[in-house]
Description:
Blueprint: E1 4-8, H1 12-23, E2 27-31, E3 39-40, E4 50-52, E5 63-66, E6 69-72, H2 75-80, E7 86-89, H3 94-102, E8 106-109, H4 114-132, E9 144-148, H5 152-163, E10 167-171, H6 175-183, E11 188-189, E12 201-204, H7 213-219, E13 223-226, H8 242-245, E14 248-250, H9 254-258, H10 260-279
Parallel strand pairs: 1-2, 1-4, 2-3, 4-7, 7-8, 9-10, 9-12, 10-11, 12-13, 13-14
Antiparallel strand pairs: 5-6
Protein name: Hydroxyacid dehydrogenase
Pfam family, one: DpaA_N
Organism: Sulfobacillus benefaciens
Amino acid sequence: xxxxxxxxxxxxxxxxxxxxxxxxxxxxxxxxxxxxxxxxxxxxxxxxxxxxxxxxxxxxxxxxxxxxxxxxxxxxxxxxxxxxxxxxxxxxxxxxxxxxxxxxxxxxxxxxxxxxxxxxxxxxxxxxxxxxxxxxxxxxxxxxxxxxxxxxxxxxxxxxxxxxxxxxxxxxxxxxxxxxxxxxxxxxxxxxxxxxxxxxxxxxxxxxxxxxxxxxxxxxxxxxxxxxxxxxxxxxxxxxxxxxxxxxxxxxxxxxxxxxxxxxxxxxxxxxxxxxxxxxxxxxxxxxxxx
Length: 291
């Protein structure tokens, strides 16, 4: 018997996820969006094995934002799922996790998985660079760029910028992160704009209000690209400053926009690795088969 999977679609990556899973031999249905060649899900369909919600998550009432609007992971759907089934989404509210657990259903929040975060850092970095190219009137080659934060995204971004021939300057509060960046050959500074030389642009990866007026004035960047998750890195004191906002962009959901096919693979690779660890069975994760 084939494994039955439902994908609730929030963006282009979910459409590619449907196609990817079909190529892997799964029986796939879409929920809340249309994918050519994929049957839409009806809550009265046969019991499910895997339900995959969107990156934005499932709230306490089971609601999800999809392309076609709001859909709901109802109690009826949960009760129809087979024992040992899986509900996955970017985030899952506690009431849904508790209800699923009581029914013998596993839950996975893939956005919080280390595997997902590292793999997702690559398209995020590449998309950020694509957005930055051409904004200053210069190439990236031999140009100074500030990178705030040297976590997963910051470190991958710095390496990609270095490969372009740019000159990234790393800023981080943590001594260990600065030491890591220094060991990799980057100029490092504490998180204070007074240490920053003039730069073409600033990438922020820190999910805290670190982008203050001092950053905009001391470094005078042509552009500021904020990759931090909501509410982002812009300090409330400059949230209405037109001069700064003209240079500022909050760039969220980058993988789904810049590389939806790879983003779909990353979601499934993350889920498959977790399911394999839990069951001891090897899940199908072949890459490059998207048609």
